[in-house]
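FORM 12-B: Structure-to-Sequence Request
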């Protein structure tokens, strides 16, 4: 589906960023609000949602999952990771209020950049008028981002603000098993716990590690066992 702006080639949605393979943990209420397939008939979805949390908790995954869902329904969406786009012109934002969904990731990256703060303030107003659904993610809540334009800070608090909670070790086991299921293989609790205890505590890194182990398992035609994980990872 064509979009009003031409984005750099590096800005792409990850194929695996779906609601189906996101383990909610303590974030079930938020996921239910974002996932239109879980919406309750007769109840209008929230137009603006701000979500925040540290790297690895899944904010980017959720924004991209929402875009995939809209696109699958033949709608039009856009995902804008400000960490990659902040050095471009704010003209990237022109016309995107005509879409069904706009997602801005890492919005704190614009803090202190006057032209971007003013452009985002204007975008908020256009999105409100066009009733476009708007999802924003950051590592901190609106008033802790260091944004100078107070009118923009106020706009960031318009709708619902959610903290995305990290998973505990038990939930991480469930999240790894769910991701393994969608990759087409079974992962035992024992192996999942071993990976978590020996690998990174960051879920993004854990999923990357799982992908590496899956590829190695396919090449070697061996099941994912603790001895095999030790061999591949040299642990």
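FORM 12-B RESPONSE
SEQUENCE OUT:
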């Amino acid at each position: 589906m064509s979009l009003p702006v031409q984005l750099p080639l590096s800005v792409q949605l990850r194929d695996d960023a779906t609601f189906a393979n996101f383990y909610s943990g303590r974030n079930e209420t938020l996921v239910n609000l974002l996932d239109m397939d879980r919406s309750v008939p007769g109840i209008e979805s929230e137009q603006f949602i701000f979500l925040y949390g540290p790297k690895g908790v899944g904010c980017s995954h959720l924004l991209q999952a929402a875009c995939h869902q809209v696109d699958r329904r033949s709608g039009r969406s856009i995902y804008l990771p400000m960490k990659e786009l902040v050095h471009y012109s704010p003209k990237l934002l022109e016309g995107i209020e005509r879409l069904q969904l706009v997602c801005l990731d890492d919005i704190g990256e614009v803090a202190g950049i006057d032209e971007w703060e003013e452009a985002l303030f204007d975008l908020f107003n256009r999105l409100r008028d066009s009733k476009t659904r708007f999802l924003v993610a950051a590592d901190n809540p609106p008033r802790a981002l260091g944004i100078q334009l107070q009118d923009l800070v106020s706009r960031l608090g318009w709708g619902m603000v959610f903290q995305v909670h990290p998973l505990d070790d038990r939930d991480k086991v469930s999240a790894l098993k769910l991701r393994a299921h969608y990759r087409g293989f079974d992962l035992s609790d024992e192996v999942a716990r071993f990976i978590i205890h020996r690998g990174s505590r960051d879920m993004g890194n854990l999923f990357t590690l799982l992908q590496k182990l899956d590829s190695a398992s396919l090449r070697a035609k061996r099941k994912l066992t603790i001895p095999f994980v030790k061999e591949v990872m040299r642990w």
